[in-house]
Amino acid sequence: ATTTRGFNLRGGGSAGMHVFSATHGTGTDGSYFTITDTGKVGIGTNSPDYQLDIENTSTHAVMRLHAAANSSASLRLQNDAQHWDLNCQTTDTFAIYDQTRGAQPFSILPNGSVGIGTDSPNQKLEVDGDVRIKDARSLFFKRHGDNYAWRIRNESASDTSTYGFDGSNDLVFE
Predict the structure, then answer these.
(1) What are 99-114's pLDDT values in tens digits?
(2) pLDDT greater at residue 29 or residue 23
(3) Does residue 17 contact residue 36 with C-beta atoms inside 8 Å?
(4) 3-state secondary structure the chain
(5) What is the mean pLDDT of residues 40-58?
(6) What is the pTM of this model?
(7) CA distances (Å), origin 24, targets 48, 52, 63
């Protein structure tokens, strides 16, 4: 191994050995950055357990993606069937973007408005689609063709009554 104050380049030896590491001091008192011979990268750890392992033992660990002005910063999460982006868009909107379908199912605008199924909410919470809040009691919003309805339903085992208005603004008791 060749050692230079603060940087270590190593080769050979046992499995899991560091191929490259940047340390402070003499190289024995902590690691800033490590690449192992198995391809794992450690930041703040000299023994990464994952492909990228960020560790801070004294306070919060933060990873930052910083884009240029009027640009977006994204983190892509991908498996063999689905591609999702978490991003800060050029409009300063935080979004979850479905790259596979080319759709944006979730948005938070800079003013704090949240959109589900819409990328331009006009209310604090705007949902484009059916909403169901399920528990012992529920509040249910539904679209019927071009009409909208809402109802309050008691979903307990003994009572499945529904109260509300249908798409024709008729009061409904079921």
Answers:
(1) 999 999 999 999 999 9
(2) 23
(3) yes
(4) CEEECCEEECCCCCCCCEEEEEECCCCCCCEEEEEECCCCEEECCCCCCCCEEECCCCCCCCCCCCCCCCCCEEEEEECCCCEEEEEECCCCCEEEEECCCCEEEEEECCCCCEEECCCCCCCCEEECCCEEECCCEEEEEEEECCEEEEEEEECECCECCEEEECCCCCEEEC
(5) 88
(6) 0.66
(7) 17, 20, 20
